[in-house]
Design brief:
about 290 residues, mainly alpha, disordered C terminus
C-alpha cells in the first residue's frame, strides 16, 4: 500500500470539514440543538435527583431515569438523521429547505431504528463468545498472567468494537439516504464498505482518541483540584458526546459517498433523497 493510500482516510476528514462551511444555517442550528436540548434534560434530571435525596420514592426515581434516557435517545436519534441529511445536501451541493428537512426526517426516522436492530441481530453471534471469555477471565485467580490476558482481551474487544462500528454507522447512514428495507440497508452497507473498512477503522480510532483525550483532560482538571462540580462535569460530558456524535455522522456521510465513488456507481435523485441503483456485480451476501 502506498503512503498516500495509507493516509487517504484523512481526505475524508478534510472533506467533512468543508461541510461546515456549507449550509451553515442548518449545521449551526443542529449543533445548538444538540447542545441545548441534552443540557436541559440533564439539568432537569439533576434537579429531580436533588428533590429525592432522601430516597423516599425509589420507584419514581427509576421511572424518571428511564424516561430521561428514552427522551435523550429520541432527541439524539432525530438530530442524527438531520445531520446526515444536511451533510448529504452539503456534500452534493443540493438546495435544502427547512420544510424539506422536516419532511425527510419525518419520513425516514423509523428506518434507521429497524436497520440498526437488524444489524445487531447479525452481531449477536459474537456476544456469546465475548461473554464466555470475560467470565473465564473474571473467574481466574489474579496473577501477572491473568492480568496480561485481561489487558489483551480488553484491547481486542475495543478493537473489534471499533471495527464493527464502521458497518454499524454506515448502516445508519444508508438507511437514511437510500430507500429500501432494513435488511437491504445492512447488506448495502456491507457491500459498500468492502475494501474500505480499514479507512473507517482508522477514522474511528482517530476520532475516539480525540474524544478520550479531551474528556480525560477534563477529568484530570477535576481530579487535581480545579473542580468544575458534578453538574458542570456532567454538562461537559453530554455536550462533548453530542458534538462527537454529530461529527461522526458528518464524517460517515462523506465516507458513504466516497465508497460509492470508489465503486463507480450511478446516483439517481428521487426528491431530495439519495438512492443508489445497485449493480448485480456488487450485490453479495457477505457482511463484514
Amino acid at each position: 500500500m502506498k503512503f498516500s493510500e495509507a493516509f487517504s482516510f484523512l481526505t475524508i476528514l478534510r472533506e467533512s470539514t468543508k461541510i461546515l462551511s456549507k449550509n451553515r444555517k442548518f449545521s449551526s442550528t443542529i449543533l445548538l440543538l444538540s447542545l441545548i436540548l441534552p443540557s436541559i434534560l440533564l439539568l432537569s434530571l439533576i434537579s429531580f435527583y436533588r428533590s429525592l435525596l432522601d430516597g423516599s420514592d425509589l420507584y419514581l426515581f427509576f421511572v424518571v431515569e428511564i424516561v430521561f434516557l428514552l427522551v435523550f435517545v429520541a432527541v439524539s436519534h432525530v438530530l442524527g438523521i438531520a445531520t446526515v441529511l444536511v451533510s448529504s445536501a452539503s456534500y452534493t451541493d443540493r438546495d435544502l429547505s427547512w420544510e424539506q428537512l422536516f419532511t425527510d426526517v419525518k419520513r425516514t426516522w423509523k428506518m434507521p431504528i429497524f436497520a440498526s436492530f437488524r444489524f445487531s441481530s447479525h452481531s449477536t453471534r459474537y456476544l456469546t463468545f465475548v461473554l464466555v471469555v470475560v467470565f473465564l477471565a473474571a473467574a481466574s485467580p489474579v496473577n501477572v498472567f491473568t492480568v496480561f490476558c485481561a489487558v489483551v482481551i480488553g484491547i481486542g474487544i475495543i478493537g473489534f468494537q471499533l471495527h464493527e462500528s464502521v458497518v454499524r454507522v454506515l448502516v445508519y447512514v444508508v438507511s437514511v439516504l437510500e430507500e429500501g428495507f432494513p435488511g437491504e440497508a445492512v447488506e448495502r452497507a456491507g457491500n459498500l464498505v468492502k475494501g474500505h473498512q480499514w479507512k473507517g477503522f482508522a477514522i474511528n480510532v482517530l476520532l475516539n482518541l480525540i474524544f478520550v483525550v479531551v474528556f480525560g483532560s477534563v477529568l484530570v482538571v477535576e481530579y487535581i483540584g480545579y473542580g468544575m462540580g458534578y453538574t458542570a462535569c456532567g454538562l461537559w460530558f453530554v455536550n462533548l458526546f453530542s458534538t462527537f456524535k454529530m461529527i461522526v455522522f458528518m464524517v460517515y456521510t462523506v465516507f458513504y459517498f466516497q465508497c460509492k465513488k470508489e465503486c463507480g456507481e450511478d446516483v439517481n435523485l428521487y426528491g431530495n433523497v439519495e438512492y443508489t441503483r445497485l449493480s448485480s456485480a456488487i450485490v453479495g451476501n457477505d457482511i463484514p
